[in-house]
Amino acid sequence: MILVRQSNPERLLLLLSGEHPTIPYSEVCAVLQTEGVEFHQVSRHDQVLIIDTEGGAGEAVKGRAAYVMEGGRFILRSEPSELVFERCCGGADWSFLEGRSFGVKVTRVKEYWREMGTQELQGIVGEIVKGETDSRVDLEGAEVWIRGVVTDGGVFLYTLDFQTDRRAFAARRPKTRPYFHPGVLDPKLSRAFVNLSRVKRGEVFLDPFCGTGGFLIEGALVGCRVCGMDLDMRMVPGARRNLRHYGLEADLIHGDARNLPLRTADGMATDPPYGRGTSTRGENVRTILSGFFREAHRVLREGGCLCTAAPIELNPSELVKRAGFKVHEEHSMRVHKSLTRSIVVAERQSR
Ligand SMILES: C[S@@+](CC[C@H](N)C(=O)[O-])C[C@H]1O[C@@H](n2cnc3c(N)ncnc32)[C@H](O)[C@@H]1O
After folding, report:
1. Would 2 be classed as within a structural domain?
2. Averaged over 295-322, what is the pLDDT?
């Protein structure tokens, strides 16, 4: 994966959402690469990613990522044993507190080390830090929050340096927009699609099956110039209304994604129809996808990425490869009993 430079790295712990087993990790890496933050992955655990970086990672992630909850400077990792945990806390360097007041909060991922209470762990940290430093506990107005997370691989402590705005995503729920149509992905997943396309601020982002504009909203919010297209006449004014609802603008075109009236785009993320119900007007969905992927290859700049979804049985990674893309990653997501979605991230290469 990853870019390394190691003059004076800072070790960061990122606490990820458990909403999907693989996308949150990929999204963080994509965001850091897109924002030009060099980093090296130290280790990966259930909902936890530890990286070395020279700085800027927290701001980059906070500004863009949908599936990061919070993060901060890594303090220590302990095996899931009370004795070892006490020793690790006793041996850690707490001088960064510099006399400031602190609070401790430990959370647990799933059922890891269930025998040990999180409050007990908080108590151990609190007592040791008080004994080793001049800092006092202040749960109301702590100047520094020490966070802990129990997951596979043990207990990890870090300082809480940033939290992402989870409420902002919730506030953009599709049903709260002026124009709604079923089949819209939620804003966090839409943002992750945009991030996986690795499109940068100021670049041109295209969603050729834009529907009500969910991906365009997320693309515009990260600072892209956004362009959307849909075959359904109703979607163009509908998506425009939705973007304006958030004070955003987009170029919107009525037309077929297999015939894009565009010279070039820097990144694309899209959720084409799945061939269920009336979504394809009777056309074979594999034919639509193959035609679209060829057109996406023509329009995307070399090195630009496409993030697309399709029912897993259509084998979309094979279809994008045939169109001249190099597949970077594929994630599977169960939607319901008869639909598993495959999410493919692919880079345009010259044929
Ligand atoms: C799953 S929905 C996309 C939902 C979208 N992400 C949103 O935020 O509302 C798929 C969209 O593709 C459109 N569509 C179907 N065939 C198309 C084609 N050949 N070219 C462009 N759009 C098409 C449908 O009208 C529908 O709005």
Report:
1. no
2. 97
Measured from CB, residues less than 6 Å from any atom of ligand 1 are 183-185, 208-215, 229-232, 235, 256-257, 271-273, 279-280, 288
Torsion 193-67-32-328 (CA) sign: negative
Last-in-domain residue among 130, 163, 196: 163
280: pLDDT strictly greater than 90: no
pLDDT for residue 8: 67
- The model's pTM: 0.95
The total number of structural domains in the chain stands at: 2
Mean pLDDT of 312-320: 97
Domain stop point among 163, 185, 218? 163
- Cα of 230 vs centre of ligand 1, distance in Å, is 6
Helices (H), 166-310: 166-171, 187-196, 214-221, 235-245, 285-299
Q: In this predicted model, what pLDDT tens digit does every residue of 133-160 receive, in sequence order?
A: 999 999 999 999 999 999 999 999 999 9
pLDDT of residue 277: 64
* Over residues 66-95, mean pLDDT: 98
Domain-located, residue 4: no
DSSP tag of 180: -
Count of beta carbons in the 10 Å neighbourhood of residue 171: 11
Distance (Å, whole) CA 34 – CA 123: 40
CA-to-CA distance for 248 and 245, rounded, in angstroms? Answer: 7
Q: Distances in Å between the alpha carbon of 309 and those of 196, 209, 269, 345?
A: 12, 11, 9, 9
* CA separation for the pair 153, 182 (Å, rounded): 41
167 CA from centroid of ligand 1 (Å): 27
Pocket mutation for ligand 1, best pick of 230, 293, 341 (most atoms within 8 Å of C-beta): 230
State the average pLDDT over residues 27-53. 97
pLDDT of residue 251: 98
